[in-house]
């Protein structure tokens, strides 16, 4: 009999963001009072056939898995559970064995995230998050899905300090929709665009080329000085620093999800010289591209 395929990620249509440790460390050092609980990873796996994760030594972070379609299975505290549509599992940080996987016949579609705290045990005790708890049935959680999408879109716009704070605050609300679902009403927020949002969207669409501040300012018929001041006031960074920041974020995603050569990844984010790209990556992320790729094998 052929051995069953088991994969961690790589599903068609998946979305994954892993926030680098250095980025989180810098954010916590800058505003420790705002990161009592913080997001470390966020993802979406549609119809995740052959998805399987086994954690022999548990996980140092909490893991939330919300199944919206299909089904999966998990082993918690040496007990096996089935996870069906409109059920969620909230796994506390633990050193015990845990595993979870998609059903063979009807693989699950899941939204998931990892979150941490410097006092994670106290957080879990306060919220009664225990490894002995089985999957929980809830009505379709539109609030959580909407909040998840907002967090993901915010982080896609870059790891600025403001974006990380926004994701951290939104995480509280997202968790509340699962823990206290009856207390939350769906809120349709106004997503009107402004100059800075349009600029960042344009940056994200052109990560493989070079952009100048002059080109960005001209797009909005503003002077370079006025545009730069406006951008820095809104994001806390200069336009070019923010653009590089987005390039490094994209490089992190490519290193995590792909096995393409470093030179090819450098080209995809607009750098002809892979050595210059590697130095820049280490300066922003705190580790070399090869080191980041090696470490990413142990996350997710």
Automatic annotation (TrEMBL):
InterPro entries: AraC-bd (IPR003313), Homeodomain-like_sf (IPR009057), HTH-like (IPR037923), HTH_AraC (IPR018060), HTH_AraC-typ_CS (IPR018062), Tscrpt_reg_AraC-type_HTH (IPR020449). Residues 197-295 form the HTH araC/xylS-type domain. GO terms for molecular function: DNA-binding transcription factor activity; sequence-specific DNA binding. It comes from the Bacteria. CDD domains: cupin_MmsR-like_N. Signal peptide: none annotated. Keywords: DNA-binding, Transcription, Transcription regulation. SUPFAM superfamilies: Homeodomain-like (SSF46689), Regulatory protein AraC (SSF51215). SMART domains: HTH_ARAC. Pfam families: AraC_binding (PF02311), HTH_18 (PF12833). This is Transcriptional regulator, AraC family. It comes from Arcticibacter svalbardensis MN12-7.
């Amino acid at each position: 009999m052929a051995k069953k395929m088991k994969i961690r990620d790589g599903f068609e249509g998946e979305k994954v963001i892993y926030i680098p440790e250095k980025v989180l460390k810098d954010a916590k050092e800058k505003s420790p009072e705002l990161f009592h609980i913080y997001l470390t990873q966020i993802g979406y796996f549609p119809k995740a056939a052959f998805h399987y994760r086994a954690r022999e030594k548990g996980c140092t972070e909490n893991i939330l898995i919300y199944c919206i379609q299909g089904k999966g299975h998990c082993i918690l505290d040496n007990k096996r559970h089935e996870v069906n549509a409109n059920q969620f599992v909230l796994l506390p940080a633990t050193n015990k064995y845990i595993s979870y996987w998609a059903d063979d016949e009807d693989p699950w579609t899941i939204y998931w995230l990892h979150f941490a705290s410097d006092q994670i045990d106290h957080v879990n005790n306060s919220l009664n998050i225990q490894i002995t708890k089985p999957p929980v049935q809830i009505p379709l959680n539109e609030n959580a899905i909407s909040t998840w999408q907002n967090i993901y879109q915010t982080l896609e716009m870059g790891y600025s300090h403001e974006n990380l704070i926004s994701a951290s605050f939104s995480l509280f609300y997202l968790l509340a929709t699962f823990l206290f679902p009856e207390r939350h009403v769906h809120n349709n927020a106004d997503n009107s665009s402004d100059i800075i949002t349009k600029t960042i969207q344009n940056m994200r669409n052109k990560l493989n080329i070079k952009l100048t501040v002059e080109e960005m300012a001209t797009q909005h018929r503003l002077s370079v000085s006025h545009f730069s001041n406006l951008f820095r006031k809104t994001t806390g960074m200069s336009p070019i620093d923010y653009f590089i920041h987005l390039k490094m974020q994209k490089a992190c995603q490519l290193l995590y999800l792909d096995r393409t050569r470093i030179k090819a990844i450098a080209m995809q984010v607009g750098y002809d010289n892979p050595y210059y790209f590697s130095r820049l990556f280490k300066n922003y992320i705190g580790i070399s591209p090869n080191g980041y790729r090696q470490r990413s094998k142990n996350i997710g």
